[in-house]
Amino acid sequence: MKVINFYLISIIFLLNGLGFSCASSNYVKIEKISPELKPDRYNVAFLIMDGVYNTELTAPFDIFQHTIFRDSIKPMNTFLVANTLAPIKTFEGIRLLPDFNYLKDAIPKIDILVVPSAEGHLDKDLEDKAMLHWIKSVDKEAMFITSHCDGAFVLAKAGLFDHAVSTTFPSDVDVMRKMFPKLDIRENVLFVHDGKYISSAGGAKSFEASLYLCELLYGKAIAKRLAKGLVIDWNLSEVPHLIIK
156: which residues sit within 8 A by CB, 6+ positions away? Predict the structure, then answer.
């Protein structure tokens, strides 16, 4: 009997060491921690999902988040939105925790929506009706909606580019034109601004489109200061771009 009890105790300790217990399982509960959204700021939401690309997310996030360090302007609250609060894994392997679940949470009014590129933006993500519906609802009140790289495909699928000129990742321009033959999709530019929509070629050039929006909101001097903080030599006149309206 003592031998049996010894083995039983050993098994219990082993299971506990592996993360099991009588009272709990190895399931990790995701606790929602609401971000601090200060008043009198622009609310900037970044739509993320598994397979989101690092650069198209972090480039605009860096630019917009750094507005809090500039005096005499209305800075930006930056936060991540997904269809879950569980960790999101970027294409390159970084794990991110969303701030809001757009399927369940009440999200404050979004002034600027950023749609970075993701691995599934040319196929499976375009079939996500809930996501497309949410984007359309944000579009009704947002001041600006921006896409980077293949994020343009999502906005096109949601119908946001039906009456706007856009661009996307250079090697995917023809793919987008074939998928959306009625749209006006430009190439040989790093970003296009038409109405409330700003679409960029993506990659490291996502910085340029984001700095352009800051110059639009805050002026050239502030945009240059934001760029300098990230060691970027910013001069809009040297960036191939297209402004429609």
Answer: 166, 176, 179, 180, 183
